[in-house]
């Protein structure tokens, strides 16, 4: 199954302050993650400050892939997620450093020998994840939630993975907003678990 290409329309202002179409077409950055074949990032837009600068600046999505949003910024992307395979579930954890390095955040991976899924990770952000097409299972440390089209997950910096157990690809839309952990949560996350560090 192949999903349709994403069309992006970006607006701006002309010299007289009138609204114009700055660009209309396919996304300039669409990248498959080599360490997880079939996983495709479709970079839509990002901002790098709050409040966001409203201007006619160049496209912020043309650089290297970076998983989290910029400090005090946001990031919007679609991700196509292939079905989990027995080989990936058995041996995928060994590839996660490479996978998260490809998206500019090797430190995001939290996978350990006893993790519930090879893609366990966390970022210090608020993420809105929307299932557009297909089915997904949200994996947390001690819970799982089945998701269908129209399901929205508000991810508040928690350790998680996206497991595709449906046998067909899933497309999700993500909006990531830079955040800072509450002091109590930050302290709890800094305490090593029994049997090893987090």
Automatic annotation (TrEMBL):
Residue ranges occupied by any Cupin type-2 domain in the UniProt entry: 118-175
CDD domains in UniProt: cupin_BLL6423-like (cd02231)
Pfam families associated with the record: Cupin_2 (PF07883)
PANTHER family the record matches: CUPIN TYPE-2 DOMAIN-CONTAINING PROTEIN (PTHR36156:SF2), SLR2101 PROTEIN (PTHR36156)
Protein name per Swiss-Prot or TrEMBL: Cupin domain-containing protein
Organism: Trinickia dabaoshanensis
């Amino acid at each position: 199954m192949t999903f349709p290409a994403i069309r992006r329309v970006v607006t701006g202002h002309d010299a007289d302050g009138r609204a114009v179409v700055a660009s209309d077409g396919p996304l300039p950055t669409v990248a498959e993650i080599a360490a997880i074949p079939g996983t495709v990032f479709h970079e839509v837009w990002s901002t790098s400050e709050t409040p966001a600068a409203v201007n006619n600046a160049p496209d912020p999505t043309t650089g290297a892939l970076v998983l989290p949003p910029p400090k005090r910024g946001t990031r919007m992307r679609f991700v196509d997620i292939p079905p989990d395979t027995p080989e990936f579930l058995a041996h995928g954890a060994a590839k996660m450093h490479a996978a998260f390095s490809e998206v500019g955040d090797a430190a995001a991976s939290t996978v350990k020998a006893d993790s519930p899924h090879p893609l366990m990770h966390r970022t210090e952000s608020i993420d809105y994840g929307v299932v557009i097409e297909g089915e997904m299972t949200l994996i947390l440390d001690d819970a799982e939630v089945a998701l269908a089209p129209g399901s929205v997950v508000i991810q508040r910096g928690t350790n998680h993975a996206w497991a595709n157990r449906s046998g067909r690809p899933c497309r999700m839309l993500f909006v990531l907003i830079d955040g800072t952990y509450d002091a109590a949560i930050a302290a709890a996350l800094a305490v090593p678990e029994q049997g090893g560090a987090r």
